[in-house]
Amino acid sequence: MTEQVRMVWLDALRLIAGVSMVGLHATADSMGQPFAAFETSERIAPMLLRAVIYTARTELFLIISVFLLLLALETRPKTYAAVMRIQARRLLVPFAFWTLFYAAYNLIKAETFGYAAPYIDQLSKPFEWFGFFLLGDVKYHMHFIPTLFGLLLFYPLFRLAQQFPMIGLMVLACLAAKREMDVFVWSTFWGQEGLPYLVRGVKILTYCGYGMVAGAALGIWQQVEPAVRRQWFVLIAFVGAMLFLIKLIATYKTIETAQWQHGFTPGYWADFLMPVVLFMGCLCLGHLRWPSVISKWAPYSFGIYLCHPIFLDVSEILLRGTAWPPIAQVGFKIAVAIPLTTALVVLLSRNSVLGWTVGMGHLPRVPGFNKLKVKGI
């Protein structure tokens, strides 16, 4: 693909999505909380950094992935069964590998932080492994792959949005439904073993709104002239600025209370709409000449997403027992995780045996699937 044909703006979004996940997970303490053990003033810098980084959530990865699938189907149409067989092989085989890897790797952090015994007990229970493989809860980031696969089951609906881009506005209805169904499911089934599965089902169903955004975006890319799209950017930037101000209010509340503001409704809308705004904003600027080096590194974004907890765990182990302020801890974790994760992903991608684990190269043969080459998200 030549530089003129390749959507470098989309590659930029892929990189933003991958790298931002490192920063996102680095801006919480080792227990995933907003540094509750520190003074209020010490939470200001890391939480403001998080507010910026959190504009690119995993939902941005979902939009990108659906957009790429629909784009690929434009040039190489396939049946529904063929598409899902390819996606199952492309996503679920690496997912199985990393699930087993993190199930074992977690023992290192568990031993260091003193919860090895309950974690080993967890590994001994078959029901927990259902959660690992069906929900991806073996590690805080692994939920993305089964969620994406579930979302892709609905891709014919997203192709309809490609034909009629106004359908993309359904993301608003879907997010409203998610908010209400989450409240009902959590309050009604709290403490029951099936709760995580119900929550994930609601998530996949309502995240179809993001799939419709991706379809609408492709339709706009194909149907609307670059000069017209460029005029939309100012409005999209304005909406993004308004949403970010709301995010700052949520950030203020987090700094003051040392608790994530899951119950702050305006913050909910700001968080979940920012990936849409970011994607559409870059699409409107897609006609510009983006640095070609972006396309060189974009294929590693999926691997960065998959591998970054390896080095975040290492950095948190190294920080254990230190009295560093939160922003210093965040800086250390990012400085360790990003270069080392990138180096690992590059090495794996160049390995003919293990390249598939980061979405590069040939996948191993698995009964029931055709032999396909995977080039990364």
TrEMBL record:
InterPro entries: Acyl_transf_3_dom. Residues 8-344 form the Acyltransferase domain. It is found in: Cell membrane. GO terms for cellular component: plasma membrane. Its main location: membrane. Keywords: Cell membrane, Membrane, Transmembrane, Transmembrane helix. GO terms for biological process: enterobacterial common antigen biosynthetic process. It is a multi-pass membrane protein. Coiled coil: none annotated. GO terms for molecular function: O-acetyltransferase activity. The chain crosses the membrane at residues 12-28, 48-71, 91-108, 140-157, 232-252, 272-290, 327-348. The keyword S-adenosyl-L-methionine does not apply. Belongs to the acyltransferase 3 family. This is Acyltransferase 3 domain-containing protein.
